[in-house]
Amino acid sequence: MNASALKSYLFVSDFDQTLTFNDSGYVLSEIVGIPTEEFERKAKGMTKLNLVQQGAELAYLLLHDPDLRSRVRKEHLIQVGKQIRLKSNIGLLNEILDHGIEGYHFDFFVLSAAPVEVVRSALEGLLPADHIHGTEFTYKPSGEIDTIVRATAGYGKVAFLDELQANKEIGPDHVIYAGDGSSDIHVMLHVNARDGFTIAVSETEHVTQIAQRTVLSPNALGVLVPILEKIVGMHRTQIRKFIESHGFLIQEWDKVRTDWITLRAVKSDLLESLPEEGKPRTRLTSAG
Ligand SMILES: [Mg+2]
Question: How remote is the CA of residue 273 from the centroid of ligand 1, in Å?
Fold first, then answer.
């Protein structure tokens, strides 16, 4: 098939907790000798302030927290990339997206709020460096962080994605975004509003409410399932065969739509006074 007959898509993925099992900030604090609880206190404190875009807490702390700023050097960021635990088969996912699905080409990019050095170091040999974008700093000759060039967190991801899409000349309905939620809410709302496809890879409440599909798997190939189903239009048996052709068996495939419900007790006399249709009803989960 010639290249022009291929249907081209952009597949953009978050990094922390989407392609990894933990957050770069925690690995970094460990490397530079800041206790986890202390880092957690700082990061959560930043989130609570709403001073910076969601996901940009680490970038802010690297610039303004004396403890982090004085300890962290560029080499530590590269070291984080080598130590962070990645989901399996990210390289294979890239190969399959690139040329493994007949009639389709998916250009795989990573867009992370984490420092770009962390992500490029972690995905070295799996994804080309120019397909990896993150928060950019400038450094002093000593390796100490000097200043920030660009934060790709929160709305910063939207701005970056729009640029990428324009450069690649791909329509907004051919954009797929996968993320776990911490810095992905704006970008997912944006992609949905423009008829793209969004995939959540965690059960975080806000993200599952926004994403069109949720897939939980310790294997990076898990995101292929909703793509093959929704974009390529394969049936379950075809998807199983496809995954099998790449050397994996789908061992378990549970499909549950989850409704998030919080109930509060109603005083019984108030309940009695409600008309029949006003009485609270619950439906917890439904299969299908
Ligand atoms: Mg994330």
Answer: 47
